[in-house]
Amino acid sequence: xxxxxxxxxxxxxxxxxxxxxxxxxxxxxxxxxxxxxxxxxxxxxxxxxxxxxxxxxxxxxxxxxxxxxxxxxxxxxxxxxxxxxx
Length: 86
Fold this sequence. Notes:
Layout: H1 3-8, H2 10-29, H3 34-59, H4 64-83
Helix pairs in contact: 2-3, 3-4
């Protein structure tokens, strides 16, 4: 992602940073409870998907291939992270 993309839509990327930072902080706050960590992972995945759809819609390049790409990436991330929790 080029720096010009961030300069064009700074609030989009600020929102993404807030989502991801909130997820990381929440994940460590609830480090004693894997059930809550899974919920945080699911919620973060949904928020990331919503953000990506919103971002690409605003850019005007939202296509089915992009939606499938994000869904595959999110599914892979959810499977990997939840399988490592006890």
